[in-house]
Write a structure and sequence with these properties.
- Helix 5 links the parallel strand 4 (about 110) and strand 5 (about 130-135).
- The chain is about 35% helix and about 25% strand.
- The chain is built from nine helices and ten strands.
- Strands 6-5-4-7-8-10-9 form a seven-stranded mixed β-sheet.
Length: about 280
């Protein structure tokens, strides 16, 4: 579960002269609007303190095994990497718990659309030999690089990659990967078949896998919901990738409480590429 880094938050509050009692109505409102998101309350409080103190960024924690990753998040409205999304947390959990037989030890991992890079950095902390963090947004890549350095993970690099592009990319030039991570990338404007084609180009080996995590938030657009519902069919129609495991998660994987909106884990196997 993601938690606010207390020393930084308290210091920011003190500099801004914030009274704790003045935050209560705002916190109650945050709970109502984001009741099933484990990081929602912490992110709302962190954002509020950052905004009132004149600081745009805030810090969240992601527990990984016995330790935690410290992640900078960009100000709300700044684009990607503004908070620690549920799908990224679930992606990290799947890697940590070896969901569907995932084993990151000694593997080459690439994260598509990394944002804060939570999932990719969790993979690095869990034993991946090499992790490549990719995004189409240069600002997100700068954030990912800072977060990697902040957590002392030297086996991490960043590279620009448009997950829907057909041309060669900086990430693809580095060869193929054992595992691709993609958290919450299917929106109304994203083409599942082009996204899958990118994954297929980047994977290699009999045990290579692509893990997609989708958020079933009912507030998403109709196009996004249709994209998630038809994702497996679109991927298998457009590529040689095949879904080997699909699971709906309707309870919080940390607390066990019911989620207002489920998440979906889907694992795809890559075809063998000729050497």
């Amino acid at each position: 579960m993601a938690l606010l880094e207390q020393p930084e938050a308290l210091a920011a509050a003190e500099r801004a002269g914030i009274c704790a009692s003045s935050l209560i109505p705002r916190l109650q409102q945050a709970v109502v609007h984001d009741a099933d998101d484990a990081s929602g309350l912490a992110a709302a409080l962190s954002e509020l303190i950052s905004s009132l103190s004149g600081q745009g960024e805030h810090t969240l924690r992601l527990a990984v095994r016995e330790s935690a990753l410290l992640l900078w998040c960009r100000p709300r409205g700044a684009g990607t990497g503004t908070r620690l999304w549920r799908a990224s947390q679930l992606c990290a959990w799947a890697c940590e718990t070896h969901w569907a037989g995932l084993d990151l030890t000694g593997s080459r991992v690439l994260e598509l659309g990394c944002g804060t890079a939570a999932a990719g950095l969790a993979a690095a902390a869990l034993g991946a030999r090499e992790v490549t963090l990719t995004d189409v947004d240069p600002a997100a890549l700068r954030l990912a690089k800072r977060n990697a350095a902040r957590n002392f993970l030297p086996n991490v690099r960043v590279a620009h990659l448009d997950a829907e592009a057909s041309e060669a990319s900086e990430a693809a030039a580095e060869g193929r990967f054992d595992l691709l991570l993609a958290a919450d990338l299917v929106y109304g404007f994203v083409s599942p078949d082009r996204l899958a084609a990118t994954a297929e180009r980047l994977l290699e080996g009999p045990h290579a896998r692509a893990l997609f995590v989708h958020d079933g938030d009912g507030c998403r657009s109709e196009g996004a919901r249709q994209g998630v519902a038809g994702f497996v069919a679109a991927v298998e129609a457009a590529t040689a990738l095949r879904c080997v495991r699909s699971e709906t998660v309707d309870k919080d994987w940390v607390t066990g409480r019911e989620l207002a909106a489920p998440l979906l884990l889907q694992l795809f196997a890559a075809p063998l590429h000729p050497t």
